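User: quick one, sequence for these tokens?
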């Protein structure tokens, strides 16, 4: 069903369950390393493999991270809570249960405000947070030999247990109502804002492409005027902001068509298909009782003291929303300029470049233009480019000093991205410094005058604008390294014309 038609008949209700892999050096309940990309099954031990006689011990840094996120979301921090065993069979969970928190999460009742751009201007939504709880991640199963990468049709499956036991925080929203046709944008804005919040706390790199942030997107529809929510679907492990938005839009259209035809929505998990923007059915969705939760007898309760919570509160950094308000005022940005920074995911990158000494306008120019273009070409996030804000600030400084032109600066950035070293090393290795001394420029100027006699005559006759062709010839002869301003002065002097 067309999206607009679906929204005329039905009101969407959303819910997002977001998993954040914490950036701790060791796993949730053992001392195994957590580095991404290690050789399969090399970061495992008796505890995370659930060998008989092994006992878990809680990672204190993971508890601190959970409290910090709860405080940043304005949650209440529980003074006492327990871990539970969530029982289900998965081949990538060696215990056949997952250690999680069930009825006693560490953080409850918070919120996160998000802003969505509309034709009428920015519109703010408050997303209520039901809970933040701690748990451990599962391993990774790969199905080999099939056409879809799923178990159906595969020849065999392989399991990597390196990820099993990595600390996770799950952030669960309360039902998000009254979003109307903005529902997909609200879902995306929430995921983006949560990612920025977590990144600002320094507790995770939240790289969605590596799975350190994953969203389960719940969507249900209820007929306009109804008071009871419809049956929800849950699209699992959506791993990009764009896909969060697309999965909500597709589910609204799919469920609306099903309901309008007299069918019913089945409570199930679904899988998002990046190539088509659609979702495919997975399995029927279990209820809480199906997991047979019970307190884990091997773990003591978690009981953060009020003093510890307040100590952690004092370490909270400037949060993203407050930071955006500050830089908007300090840099005199319009709403559109700030929106461009947010949409490019460049706020922190530009801020760090300014802190390294670059003017805000120049920092924005390089990140939003040249570097955003290169990120798009290589299909990576802007922050994943192999260049630091300090390096960008150095490029800006070299341009300001007159040591580089903008054209040469782009070549320097190209060299940095290619791994040739920092800006100064690239300038030296590639011989990219601006040529601005008269002795070096003189020969190129003379050659340009001889080769462009018509333009030279026009300049002599008073048509000074024609000097542009001669400057261009000098720039070409010096491979763009000439100081264009000094070249212009020398040309006019040699032609007997005052600039």
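Assistant:
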């Amino acid at each position: 069903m067309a999206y607009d038609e679906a929204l005329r008949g039905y009101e969407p209700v959303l819910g997002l369950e977001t998993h954040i892999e914490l950036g701790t050096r060791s796993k949730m309940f053992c001392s195994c390393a957590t580095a991404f990309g290690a050789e399969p099954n090399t970061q495992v031990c008796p505890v995370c493999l659930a060998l008989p006689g092994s006992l878990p011990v809680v990672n204190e840094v993971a508890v601190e991270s959970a409290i910090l996120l709860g405080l940043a979301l304005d949650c209440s921090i529980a003074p006492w809570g327990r871990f539970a065993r969530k029982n289900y069979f998965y081949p990538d969970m060696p215990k056949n249960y997952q250690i999680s928190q069930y009825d006693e999460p560490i953080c409850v009742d918070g919120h996160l405000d998000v802003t969505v751009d509309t034709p009428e201007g920015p519109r703010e939504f408050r997303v209520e947070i039901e809970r933040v709880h701690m748990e451990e991640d599962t391993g990774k199963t790969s199905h080999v030999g099939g056409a879809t990468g799923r178990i159906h049709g595969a020849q065999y499956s392989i399991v990597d247990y390196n990820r099993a036991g990595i600390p996770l925080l799950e952030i669960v929203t309360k039902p998000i109502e009254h979003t109307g046709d903005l529902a997909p944008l609200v879902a995306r804005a929430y995921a983006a804002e949560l990612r920025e919040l977590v990144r600002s706390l320094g507790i995770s790199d939240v790289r969605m492409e590596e799975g350190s942030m994953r969203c389960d997107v719940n969507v249900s529809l209820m007929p306009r005027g109804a008071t009871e929510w419809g049956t929800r679907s849950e699209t699992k492990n959506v791993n990009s902001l764009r896909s969060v938005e697309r999965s909500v839009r597709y589910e609204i259209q799919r469920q609306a068509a099903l309901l309008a035809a007299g069918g019913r929505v089945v409570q199930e998990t679904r899988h998002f298909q990046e190539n088509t923007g659609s979702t495919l059915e997975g399995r029927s969705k279990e209820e809480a009782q199906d997991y047979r939760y019970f307190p884990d007898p091997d773990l003591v309760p978690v009981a953060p003291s009020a003093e510890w919570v307040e100590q952690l509160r004092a370490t909270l950094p400037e949060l993203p929303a407050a930071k955006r308000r500050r830089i908007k005022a300090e840099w005199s940005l319009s709403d559109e300029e700030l929106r461009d920074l947010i949409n490019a995911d460049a706020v922190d990158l530009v801020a760090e470049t300014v802190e390294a000494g670059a003017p805000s306008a120049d920092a924005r120019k390089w990140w939003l233009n040249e570097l955003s273009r290169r990120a798009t070409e290589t299909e990576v996030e802007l922050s994943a480019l192999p260049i630091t804000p300090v390096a960008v600030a150095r490029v800006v400084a070299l341009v300001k000093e007159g040591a580089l032109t903008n054209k040469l600066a782009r070549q320097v950035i190209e060299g940095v991205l290619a791994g040739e070293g920092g800006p100064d090393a690239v300038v030296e290795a590639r011989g990219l410094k601006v040529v601005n001394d008269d002795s070096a420029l003189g020969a190129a100027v003379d050659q340009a005058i001889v080769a462009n006699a018509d333009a030279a005559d026009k300049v002599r006759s008073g048509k000074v604008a024609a000097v542009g062709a001669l400057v261009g010839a000098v720039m070409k002869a010096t491979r763009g390294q000439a100081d264009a301003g000094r070249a212009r002065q020398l040309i006019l002097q040699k032609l007997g014309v005052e600039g």
